[in-house]
Amino acid sequence: MSVTVQNLTKRFGGRREVVGVDEISFNCPEHRITSLLGPSGSGKSTLLRLVAGLEVPDAGAVCINGVDITNVPVRQRNVGFVFQNYALFRHMTVAENIAFGLTVRKAQKAQIQERVAELLSLVQLSGYEKRLPDQLSGGQRQRIALARALAIRPKVLLLDEPFGALDAQVRVELREWLHRLHEQTQVTTLLVTHDQEEALELSDHVVLLRDGKIEQAGAPTELYERPANAFVASFLGGATILSGRVVRGQALFAEEGLSTAVDLAEGSIVEAFIRPHDVRLAKVKGGTPAKVARVERLIRIGGFVKLAVALPNGDRISVQMPQHEFLEHGIEQGDSVLLDLRHGQVTPRLSYSI
Amino acid sequence: MTGVAVKRTSAEGLHHHERPALSDPVLARRVLIFLALAFVAVFLGLPLLIVFSSALKEGFGVYLAAISDAETLSAVRLSLLAAGISIPLNLAFGMAAAWLLSKYDFPGKSVITTLIDLPFSVSPVVAGLMFVLLFGANGWFAPLLSAADIKIIFAVPGVVLVTTFVTFPLVAREVLAVMQAQGSDEEEAALTLGARGWTVFFRITLPKVKWGVLYGVILTNARAMGEFGAVSVVSGHIRGETNTLPLHVEILYGEYQFASAFAVASLLGLLALVSLVAKHWVEWQAARRRTGDVIKGAAT
Amino acid sequence: MRLFTKRGVLPGFGPSLGFVVFYMSLLLLLPLSALILRASGVGLGEFFRIATEPRVMAAYQLSFGTSFAAATCNAVFGVLLAWVLVRYPFPGRKLVDAMVDLPFALPTAVAGIALTAIYAPSGWLGAPLLKLGMKAAFTPFGIFLALVFVGIPFVVRTVQPVLEDLEASLEEAAAVLGATRLQTFVKVLLPQLFPAVVTGFTLAFARGVGEYGSVVFISGNMPMKTEIAPLLIITKLEQYDYAGATVIACVMLGVSFLSLFALNLLQRRRTGAR
């Protein structure tokens, strides 16, 4: 069951008219996990709620498997929705929570019991039938919320920042768990997150949003390696964006503090999206300070070293390298260095992206 | 404590009818609104209406005569006196109790908290009886009182005393709820800056809780002037002397002077309306200024 | 005289505790003990005999029975009112909201004569009811109606804040899972409102049992039939039957204490189970 969204628009009224979602169209392939990624206010949650039917669009259409469901009320859409704060029914047991969707459909008691047991084993919480939500940990509650959503065999699974309220460690564990679960169930999933790592790890398809519009949509590697603009580049992977000019086959940035060979027309203005691990360092002795970069700070984190490097023109760039490489160079704080791009996108700057 | 309610305008609430999952079908909505309005009209609207319509039934002349009658005026005076004494007394108590219960923890705290609620759950007649047993002809203090030739029961002091009793939780509960909602951070900050006790109270706490205090006073006044059961037991119904307004209404009604009874009742009705308006104005002010939350419903 | 340790650094503990205890002892404990001691002076056997006299029992039955019925009625309509006030914007909503407090603001005697005027055989509602064969004033039914008036604010005001604070996501979750609005209300919302409804019910009940002014005019006051307990106390007082009055008052006090206790228990369970 694929989900297709066409020209969906939602405006929020009130004193300041805020555009939640602005003529968005995209497609979620069947059986795949698609992420809606973006900063706060980008419209991703609104989009998800529009697909679920929890909000009514001002214009546009939502289709599931080719069928237009824009006017179908939420309770008939048969989608699964998992809220950020779980929204478990606190006065009901775990079993009653999971069974809720089946209970309101007046299913047979035996059938319900069977399905509940099935789902509890799927989310690895068998034996928790009689527990109350208040007795569970955050991670457990989220798994129950998922089980509850899956109980009705939804066509589509919608997850609204499902791991947002959890501790970092639990978040990572649940991420992997969700991936395995999805392999088993193969339900088309639409996931909203602001965590780019989560999106890159989990999804087959990513839709990056900003201010109610799509900045780029595609496979994770595509957005990462070939960002369409500066925003995409910096959102996914924290890029520094520099502009420079081509001189004698070299693109020079930041008053020649950073340079790299390029095959572009002499004199053209170029833009580079530089990720911390794209930069190569070489220690320099002497040399005109004006043209040389300086290491301001280094931090060792795990197997990596992060360096904050000041460029000759005052800009700062973040460089990251594996520990062993760092030790080979023998760099210390305050050292002067020359920078080169290992590989990073250098594109002719045709138009400004804000 | 029961029924603490902070009146908030939930931003979500404004969108309730715009969100499909939260909005009820139009027909259901209309029916429920109709039922609710019908209930309110019958049980709340009619009583209010009939007070004023019965008061004016025999014409404006009778109405004016009733409310300017000498006995009525003395009843007004007594009611005002009872309110005028019980309000400041209970105000002082209320502030002290609220301060005590919200800023400290100590053994016996829950006993005090529960006892404060007692006048609410006790029948006003029982309240009146208790004071009769204390100060009445066969009461504990009877010998002392007759020796000093002081009459409490069947005299003005009894009325005032009993009024103070039934109204004493009101300011306390209201201000306590507000203080609890606001916390003690500011007071503690003032302490660290070197302020002394009374300074903290008058310059930090009082401004913060003023709307709660005002709300409590409005409630106290309404109750004090309207108290009937308890006062009925201790007053002796001496016309022109120990009759409050509600008692006067009862007497007129008992004499079948219905229009006059309702005329005097309408004064109390007007007072009730003024109290309601004042209450809402205070709630509105408190919400606007956000100087802490006026707790609606704490005075049940 | 630090008999116990207080927790809290703010000054003023001593004076405020002293004043509060003094005031409460004078105004509350003294009268209370007068009542209890007087009652105990009657002796257990005699106490029991008076408390179970037929006329007294009839009065209890009447007061408790009508209060219970009225509190139940208010529980149902209170939830309805609270729901409509919180969820449905309609013209005049603020006015209706303010009106809910009327029973608190209006003196009981005024309410009493007003209600009697409405439900008397010639009254605005009394007359049509009579045509339908129902006598309202001067019957237990009339007392019931008066107590409904008295108890309206209790359930409404305890349920309203709970409704206002309800998480929208719970209703949305139920909707996505396929529940109709009615199913959502019954299975998801009502259980959450229940503690507040019970609190309001108990408050309305306790208030109704002791109510005097609103009820004494409409009740007819016939012994054994329409005589409420508070009136019986006054009657006995007028006959100088202090023992009788005291005994009945004690029983009513006991009921008050019980309901206060039950409420506190409920509050503690609510905040504990969260």
- Residue-averaged pLDDT of chain B, rounded? 86
Low-confidence stretches of chain B: 1-14
Structural class of chain B: mainly alpha
* Backbone CA Rg of chain A: 25 Å
Helical run tally of chain B: 14
Q: What proportion of the residues of chain B is helical, as a percent range? A: over 70%
Q: Order of SSEs of chain B, N→C?
A: HHHHHHHHHHHHHH
Instruction: Give the N-to-C terminal Cα separation of chain B.
Output: 10 Å
- Mean pLDDT of chain A, to the nearest integer, reads 85
Give the amount of beta strand of chain B, in percent. Answer: under 5%
Q: Spell the H/E element sequence of chain A.
A: EEEHEEEHHHEHEHEEHHEEEEEEEEHEE
> What kind of sheet is the major sheet of chain A?
10 strands, mixed
Per DSSP, what share of the residues of chain A sits in E-state strands of 2 or more residues?
25-35%
Shape of chain A: elongated
Helix tally of chain A?
Answer: 9
Instruction: Count every beta strand of chain B, where a strand is a DSSP E run of 2 or more residues.
Output: 0
Gyration radius from CA atoms of chain B, angstroms: 23 Å
Query: Kindly, what is the distance between the CA atoms of the first and last residues of chain A, rounded to a whole number of angstroms?
Result: 36 Å
What would you note in describing this structure?
- The complex is a heterotrimer of chains A (354), B (300) and C (274).
- Chain A has helices at residues 44-52, 94-104, 109-122, 138-150, 168-185, 196-202, 220-225, 230-235, 323-329, and strands spanning 3-12, 18-28, 33-37, 59-64, 67-68, 79-82, 156-160, 188-193, 205-210, 213-218, 240-247, 250-253, 258-261, 269-274, 279-283, 293-301, 304-310, 316-322, 336-341, 345-348.
- Chain A has 354 residues and is an alpha+beta fold.
- In chain A, strands 11, 12, 13, 14, 15, 16, 17, 18, 19 and 20 form a ten-stranded mixed β-sheet that branches. A six-stranded mixed β-sheet of chain A has the order 6-7-8-3-9-10, with helices on both faces.
- In chain A, 41% of the residues are buried.
- Chain B is mainly alpha-helical.
- Chain B starts with 10 loop residues before the first helix and ends in an 11-residue tail after the last helix.
- In chain C, α3 packs antiparallel against α10, α8 packs across α10 and α9 (168-176) crosses α10.
- The relative contact order of chain C is 0.13.
- Classes of the chains: A alpha+beta (354), B mainly alpha (300), C mainly alpha (274).
- The A-B interface holds A 53-56, 73-75 and B 18-21.
